[in-house]
Each structure stands twice: as C-alpha cells, then as structure tokens.
Design a protein that fits this description.
Elements lengths: L4 E7 L3 H12 L2 E5 L3 E6 L2 E7 L9 E7 L2 H11 L4 E9 L2 E8 L5 E6 L8 E7 L7 H11 L4 E7 L13 E8 L2 E7 L12 E7 L2 H11 L5 E2 L4 E3 L5 E6 H7 L4 H12 L6 H9 L1
Parallel strand pairs: 1-4, 5-8, 9-12, 13-16
Antiparallel strand pairs: 1-13, 2-3, 3-4, 5-9, 6-7, 7-8, 10-11, 11-12, 14-15, 15-16
Helix pairs in contact: 6-7
C-alpha cells in the first residue's frame, strides 16, 4: 500500500473528534497525534487530519468506499448520515446494485459503492471536475500521470448520448487512474454547484530529498498553477497539494520541542520546503 501519497482533511479544531468518529465507523486507528496533525489509518490507508484555518469542505473531493456487501454499506450509511446530509439516496443504480452519496457531520462526503475494487485500495479519493474544469477530467488524468511515476489511466466510462443527465456524452461519468501506484477516481459534472476545489481537502506527497521536492513542486504548480505557503501548491485545476520531504517530517517529530518550534517557524516563512534551511533552523 502506497502511503507516500495520501489525502489531508482540514479542520477548525475538531480533528481529534473526527478521528474518533471515522475510526469508530471504519474500525481504524490513530497513528500520529499532535495538537495540529492527527494521522489515522482506515483500511490500511493513511489520512491526515489537520487543525488549521477554517476552510469549508465540499464534494469536489469525496471518498469512495468499495464495499463487499449491502450490509456493510448500510452500516456505514447509517453512521455517516447522522448529523450530516444525503447527496444521493442509498438505492440501486445502473452502475451499482447498492450506492449512496452522503455528507457527514464534519462536511466530508462519502460515496458508498457495492462492487469490485479497481486496485487493492478500498478507500479511493474522487475528484469532481466542475465549472471551468468541466470536461477536463481526461486532460487532468493525463497531466497527473505524466508527472508521477508508476502511473496509468484505467477504465473510463462516459455519459450516454441523450441520457437523462443532460451531460456531454464526451465527458467522463467515472474514471480510474493511478499516480505512483495510488488509486484515484474522477468525473466531470456540468451541475452548477456553489463550490469547487479548495484547501479543505488536499493531497499530500511525501518526497525523498530536495531534488524530488523541487520536481513535484514545479510540476504540479506549472501551466497556470500557483505556489502557496508552507509547502502547499495549487495545480492548474485548483486542486491543492502539499509537497513535504520526509526529512522535514523527521525534524518535526523530534522529541526536543524547542528544536521542533524552530523548524515550524522556518516552515511558516517558506513557500517550497527547503530541507537545508530547516536543518539549519533545527541546529540553531
């Protein structure tokens, strides 16, 4: 299982509560806990929960759970919808005997799907390309698979000509792709939602050294993307990525809190993470 790429969900101080909530539903566990960062493991996959500036989460990035039985779906559904809301009713659809889309009490959306897994991942982040991005799902998959090694585009299902959805039949209804052996799904939608990609849910890339950090930083922010602060970039579609060298995480997790604070203060002044500058701060 690839744990060098994983999603990050932003919270306004309630990351620990949500960690308990998700671990309880999906039989997961907390693997790292600090006042700012909590890492959880669901189905053997890492998710980072980050306490930071409030940013409303939305369905432009959702999480698909591939379930084995209808009972499994029903169990997740009842717990996730409590205090949340239903986006698509749990029912039988042409693409699945049992499927539903739900928003939980923390604003995170989940698609529960009865069917075969496209890889060994049970939990798959799903990107929705809307507004100015509508119709660009294939282009985006090509962009991401050019950047990441060990990547390829899998099955693509398109909307039907004259279908009830009113979608362009050239657009993607559902597609699977891999970036460095990590599974993602994507889709196009012409619906006029009041949201789009934002920092509420981002993707983390743990890099090995400065050269790899530079490569992903420059590649993902290219062609109209933007360089943000503290290791964050937005790609040309507006999806947020955190590019963090593994070496920086080792410094942050040090037992000497004075050194950790110096490293964190250095990160706050950076855009792209510069490992040698963090090491200098650590040793100062």
């Amino acid at each position: 299982m690839n744990n060098t790429i994983f999603p990050c969900i932003l919270y306004n101080g309630d990351a620990r509560k949500s960690a308990d909530f998700y671990c309880g539903i999906f039989n997961g566990k907390i693997t790292v806990e600090t006042p700012v960062v909590i890492n959880i493991e669901l189905f053997g996959q890492k998710i980072m929960l980050l306490n930071g500036p409030q940013q409303e989460k939305n369905a432009s990035v959702s999480f698909m759970i591939i379930c084995d039985t209808e009972d499994e779906i029903q169990k997740y559904w009842e717990q996730l919808k409590e205090g949340g809301g239903v986006l698509m009713e749990l029912d039988s659809y042409p693409w699945s005997k049992k499927y539903g889309w739900v928003r939980d009490q923390y604003g995170v959306t989940w698609q529960l799907f009865l069917g075969e897994k496209a890889s060994d991942q049970k939990l798959v982040p799903t990107l929705m390309f809307i507004h100015g991005n509508n119709g660009k799902a294939v282009e985006a998959m090509e962009f991401y698979t050019r950047i990441f090694p060990n990547s390829d585009i899998g099955n693509i299902s398109r909307y039907k000509e004259g279908g009830e959805t009113g979608e362009n039949p050239e657009n993607v209804m559902h597609a699977h792709f891999m970036v460095d052996d990590y599974s993602l799904f994507c889709m196009d939608s012409s619906s006029d939602y009041e949201f789009d990609f934002n920092e509420g849910i981002s993707m983390v890339v743990m890099t090995d050294g400065q050269e790899e950090t530079d490569y992903f930083w420059e590649s993902l922010s290219s062609e109209g993307g933007s360089e943000e602060v503290c290791g964050w970039v937005k790609d040309k579609y507006g999806l947020s990525w955190q590019i963090f060298p593994k070496q920086s995480m080792q410094l942050i997790n040090d037992s000497d809190q004075d050194k950790v604070q110096k490293v964190l203060q250095a990160i706050m002044k950076m855009k792209k993470i510069i490992i040698k500058d963090l090491e200098e701060a650590y040793n100062s």
